[in-house]
Amino acid sequence: MKAPMKHEKRLKCEILIDNVQNLAKQEKITVEPPFKTEVISEASKTRGNYNSQILKRRHIEAAKYLRADPDITLAADPVLRGKM
């Protein structure tokens, strides 16, 4: 599952606020004062589990093991670092 883009979530929250304000103007609903600030703060939060489907726990454990071993030196590939 892919995490939602922040601007998409913010846009959906803005649409929700507009819809709720329109319903409140028509006196179909009543809105508590902190509603707008709560919705805006919710837009900045990320909910759910968006862990990588490629990087598994066993890969993380292997990396920790390699870092802990003083006889092994990990170096970045010079091609990836733009050295070649």
Strand-helix topology:
Layout (H helix, E strand, L loop, with lengths): L5 H20 L9 H9 L13 H12 L16
Helix pairs in contact: 1-2
Task: Give an account of the 3D structure.
- This protein is mostly helical and 84 residues long.
- The protein has one domain.
- 49% of the residues lie in helices and 0% in strands.
- It has three helices and no strands.
- The protein is rod-shaped.
Shape: rod-shaped
Low-pLDDT ranges: none
Radius of gyration over alpha carbons? 23 Å
Mean pLDDT: 80
Count the helices. How many? 3
- The strand count comes to 0
Keyword list:
mainly alpha, 84 residues, single chain
Q: Could you give a short description of this structure?
A:
The chain is built from three helices and no strands. The chain is mainly alpha-helical.
